[in-house]
Amino acid sequence: MSAGELGTLARLGANVLVVVFNDRTLSSIRRKQEVARYRPAGVFTGKADYAAMAEAFGISGFRAKTESDIARAIERWRAVGGPCLLDVAVEYAHYRPMGY
Fold first, then answer.
1. Among candidates 35, 18, 25, 22, which has minimal Cα distance to 84?
2. pTM (2 decimals)?
3. What dihedral angle (degrees, nearest 10) is formed by the CA atoms of 43, 49, 55, 56?
4. Bridge partners of 85?
5. For a tag on the chain, would you pick the N or C end, based on fewer CB atoms within 10 A?
6. Is 37 exposed, middle or buried (0-12, 13-18, 19+ CB in 10 A)?
7. Sign of CA dihedral 15, 21, 26, 30
8. Residue bearing the bigger pLDDT, 95 or 37
9. Pairing relation of β-strands 17-22 and 60-64?
10. What is the pLDDT confidence band of residue 45, given thresholds at 50, 70 and 90?
11. What is d(CA 20, CA 22) in angstroms, rounded to the nearest whole number?
């Protein structure tokens, strides 16, 4: 929902790491739909590759599935500098216990 800011980061060359917790859904909206007993609709993002999207805006993008992947990506960002997006795969099931 804030993809335009990636272009701003690229233009400014800001040394910023953006972290996206990618659960393949718009989890906050989906959870509210479930709590209201609605069938989740319009919230599934599928195989969205936010690291590739970041690169399309001209900034570095990395993907991570494990803690060691995250650590390596952060080290790569520190070495390169400038704006970067880290796309971290997480499971939606972890949000189920949360209430709204």
1. 18
2. 0.76
3. -60
4. 18, 61
5. N
6. exposed
7. negative
8. 37
9. unpaired
10. low
11. 6
- What is the Cα–Cα distance from 62 to 44, expressed in whole angstroms? 21
Tokens 């070495």 belong to: 79
Summary mean pLDDT of the chain: 83
Place of tokens 């570095």: 60
Report which of 91, 76, 77 is spatially closest to residue 22, judged by C-alpha positions: 91
- Would you state the structure tokens that stand for residue 14, as one six-digit string? 């800001």
Domain range annotation of the chain: 4-90
Question: Which stretches of the chain are DSSP H helices?
Answer: 4-12, 27-35, 50-56, 67-80
Q: Which of 96, 18, 93 is nearest to 57 (CA)?
A: 18
| 35's tokens | 């709590």
Q: Residue 78: its pLDDT value, please? A: 95
User: Exposed e or buried b for every residue in 72-85, given b needs 16+ CB within 10 A?
Assistant: ebbeebeeeebbbb
